[in-house]
Amino acid sequence: MALHVKQFFYNGDNLGYLVHGDGHAVAIDPGAVDPMIEFARERNLTIEWVTNTHTHHDHVSGNREMLDRTRAKLVPCTALKGREFIEIDGEPLRVFHTPGHTADSFTFKAGNSLITGDTLFNGTVGNCFSGDLAGFFTSIKLLTAFPGTSLVYAGHDYVREAMAFAKSIDPENPHIDSFLKAYDPGHVVSTLDDELRVNPYLRFNAPAMIARMEKETLPVETEYERWCSIMTL
User: Fold this and answer.
1) CA angle, corner 206, sides to 98 and 179, nearest 5?
2) Residue 211 resides in a domain
3) Confidence of residue 143 (pLDDT cuts 50, 70, 90)
4) What whole-number distance in Å separates Cα of residue 93 and Cα of residue 79?
5) Does the reported pTM lie above 0.90?
6) What is the rounded distance in angstroms from the CA atom of residue 223 to the CA atom of residue 208?
7) 213 in a domain, yes or no?
8) Which residues is 191 bridged to in the sheet?
9) What UniProt keywords are attached to this protein's entry (predicted)?
10) DSSP 103
């Protein structure tokens, strides 16, 4: 049995998720409480767990109401570190600590889907509010090591703004227009292969991006230097 990922919009551009099997579900960043509960009722799913990609207010704002209106139990981010998975109907929802945006940022892997919160967006990455650029770099390297067909489900829809920025610093990139053409504002998803073609923050080894950094007289000798340089553009 495979796990399924259902995306929900709330607060304009926030994205939350139900990951479910045949009978049970985990609510991740459950800001869309009503639609999530309705979806679960329609499919006879029990929302068993509530958890978050990180503890910024817009991602945890729905926790209390979801817990009050269901029998779900909370798995706080503090309890995720060191945990390998959350079991749903006998299948693992895998957990990866991906610090950078915040120190308590996590990514969830359900089959071929990555729920990346504010670590990796479709077309960009999150701000490094933790100040830990080295940790963020390690997280990005971890995520980009997954198969290129992996689906990226992020914590916000910033696609149009991200592609406008990508085009401004990499105007000759032929993949940006096709990425935008494939963009569906009703179901925001991309593959890692897509991201490696258009997301400037993942393209620190691309000749065009290295040339841009050199033009700005930014350090480019090592991958980590290029990552830090790209984060300043």
Assistant:
1) 75
2) no
3) very high
4) 15
5) yes
6) 15
7) no
8) 151
9) Hydrolase, Metal-binding, Zinc
10) T
